[in-house]
Amino acid sequence: MSAFRVISIIDGDTFEVSPQWKWKGQIGTHVRPTGYNAPELHTYGGQGAKEKLSRLILGKQVDLRTAHTVDRGRLVCDVYYKGKYLADYFPEYQ
Questions:
Q1: Whether the Cβ atoms of residue 7 and residue 48 lie closer than 8 Å to each other
Q2: CA-to-CA distance for 44 and 19, rounded, in angstroms?
Q3: 90 with 52: CB under 8 angstroms?
Q4: Rg of the chain (C-alpha set)
Q5: For the chain, which residues make up each domain, given as ranges?
Q6: pLDDT given at position 2
Q7: What is the dihedral of CA 6, 36, 72, 84, to 10 degrees?
Q8: pLDDT tens-digit profile of 2-59?
Q9: Which of 52, 55, 64, 93 sits 20 to 30 Å CA-CA off 45?
Q10: What is the pLDDT of residues 62-75, one digit of tens each?
Q11: Distance between CA 26 and CA 70 in Å, rounded?
């Protein structure tokens, strides 16, 4: 894939990008990075995870690399920020 700008944060492990991604005939804007699983928004730590992800990548450029599947409209793929695997910024959720 290539570089995308993060335009909104959905929760601690889902965000929206621009332009749309295209993979195996599917198109979308929501991305679910591989390598970590943040708490859901309605559970303890969920809001903190969302805030951490927002501070890190909101408005920034990320690289979407190896895609694995599309799950509930989200492209599940390896995400890199500043050349570093995004999951490495979230060791507490690995």
A1: no
A2: 32
A3: yes
A4: 12
A5: 3-89
A6: 87
A7: 30
A8: 899 999 999 999 999 999 999 999 999 999 999 999 999 999 999 999 999 999 999 9
A9: 64
A10: 999 999 999 999 99
A11: 8
Residue type, 7: I
54: tokens are 């927002």
* Spatial distance between the Cα atoms of 3 and 11, rounded to a whole number of angstroms: 21
Q: Name the fold adopted by 3-89.
A: OB fold (Dihydrolipoamide Acetyltransferase, E2P) (2.40.50)
User: Which residues does 36 contact at the CB level (< 8 Å), separation at least 6?
Assistant: 13, 86, 87, 90, 93, 94
What single-letter amino acid sits at 74? R
